[in-house]
Specification:
Strand content: under 5%
Number of domains: 2
Distance between the termini: 58 Å
Number of strands: 0
Structural class: mainly alpha
Number of helices: 3
Radius of gyration: 28 Å
């Protein structure tokens, strides 16, 4: 009788394990579809940088031509563009440092 009970207990255990694995696989697939890749973040950052530079350029052009006379807003846009560009340069430097570190590794 113990062998039968052990077998049914083992069968129940395997069934529970398979159900748990299926739930884990579903959760894993769900999180993988919501995660963004590094290239997506990089593309968004470059697009944001381009947008800030365009806004700054348009504001400066408007200030020089006289169509825009809000110096404070133009200065804020210039500062935002400058900070965004400095951040992009620092990220580029860190990526290049990491690449060089990996390149110089000896296996």
């Amino acid at each position: 009788m113990d062998a039968i009970n052990n077998f049914s207990g083992l069968k129940s255990y395997v069934s529970n394990l398979q159900n748990t694995q299926k739930i884990g696989d579903l959760a894993l697939n769900k999180t993988n579809t919501t995660q963004k890749s590094f290239s997506t973040y990089l593309n968004n950052a470059v697009a944001n940088l381009n947008q800030n530079m365009t806004v700054m350029d348009n504001g400066t052009t408007g200030l020089v031509t006289g169509t825009n006379n809000d110096l404070g807003k133009v200065m804020i846009n210039m500062t935002e563009a400058q900070l965004t560009l400095q951040t992009a340069v620092q990220v580029r430097n860190k990526v290049l440092d990491a690449y060089n570190d990996i390149k110089n590794m000896q296996f």
